[in-house]
Design brief:
Length: 294
């Protein structure tokens, strides 16, 4: 079956460019999501609760305090052991001296101003602002607890901003999908209108809708595949450019598993979306009665 060549090549090119733009945005936000998630997981793994103990705490009381925390449900298990570390004030003073190159003794004399500290690893499901506040409130009621700290700034602001960026990305992708769908629908409507007599003649002669739809769907598959491939290539070019400035992100962007997921996501989604959108549009216009062709 040969259709009219009335469709301008510029329309086909515009559809491919639109698909490439959609694939580029998808790739961009996919990499952003993966990067933020990887970075966030790394930061979260380091998020701990620091319990500073009073100087009046005796050795026996310290043992019972450690035993208490080991039994708490929010303590993370690492290598089948509770993730809990005790640092004496002497250790903390020594680490402070190595990192800052400032000796507290020259300022404060012989008195060690630091406190003994318990560092608690927290389970993943408890790493949110509400859970941290409950944990801190509970710990503060314990005897011999001088102060409790946790990364509240990270939880309160940075995670919220990351979530907001994710919502913006989703909204942008949805709007772009709607824009591309409208373009596809209009393109198909114009093409069907140019071949309306031929198509309705074929229907009257017994041609099935599947037979009539086939060339449109194959063209839609081509547009989606090519657009997705171009968008993936452009996105990788952008990632390569940024990785030359920030070499640390190269392994993240160009990791083999990440690349496979990215190309399948871009090409697969654009191809599937193009075919489904075209199928819906074609089915709609094939239902038009032949008396309404003109």
């Amino acid at each position: 079956m040969k259709y009219s060549k009335s469709r301008p090549h510029s329309t086909q090119s515009t559809l491919i460019i639109s698909m490439a733009s959609l694939a580029f945005i998808i790739a961009l936000f996919f990499q952003l999501f993966v990067s933020v998630k990887t970075w966030g997981d790394e930061i979260k793994s380091q998020m701990k609760v620091y319990v500073y103990l009073s100087d009046s705490l005796e050795t026996a009381d310290l043992a019972s305090t450690i035993t208490y925390f080991k039994s708490r449900p929010y303590i993370n298990q690492k290598d089948l052991k509770p993730e809990l570390e005790f640092k004496s004030k002497a250790q903390i003073a020594s680490e402070f001296l190595r990192s800052s190159q400032e000796d507290y003794q020259t300022l404060l004399g012989e008195e060690n101003p630091f406190k003994n500290c318990l560092i608690l690893g927290i389970k993943e499901e408890f790493k949110n602002e509400a859970s941290f506040k409950k944990i801190v409130s509970e710990i503060q009621t314990r005897p011999y607890v001088y102060e409790v700290t946790y990364p509240n700034t990270f939880l309160g602001s940075l995670l919220g901003k990351i979530e907001a960026v994710g919502y913006v990305g989703i909204i942008l992708i949805v709007l772009l999908i709607l824009f591309v769908y409208i373009q596809l629908a209009n393109n198909i409507r114009l093409h069907i209108h140019g071949n309306r007599v031929l198509i309705k003649s074929m229907q009257l002669l017994g041609s099935t809708n599947g037979f009539i739809q086939k060339p449109y769907l194959l063209n839609a598959l081509f547009v989606g595949f090519l657009g997705g491939l171009i968008g993936f290539t452009l996105a990788n070019g952008a990632f390569l450019y940024f990785s030359t400035s920030i070499p640390e992100i190269t392994s993240l962007f160009f990791e083999i598993r990440n690349q496979i997921q990215l190309v399948l996501g871009c090409v697969g989604f654009c191809s599937l979306f193009s075919v489904l959108a075209s199928y819906v549009s074609i089915s709609k216009y094939l239902k038009i009665q032949h008396t309404n062709l003109f």
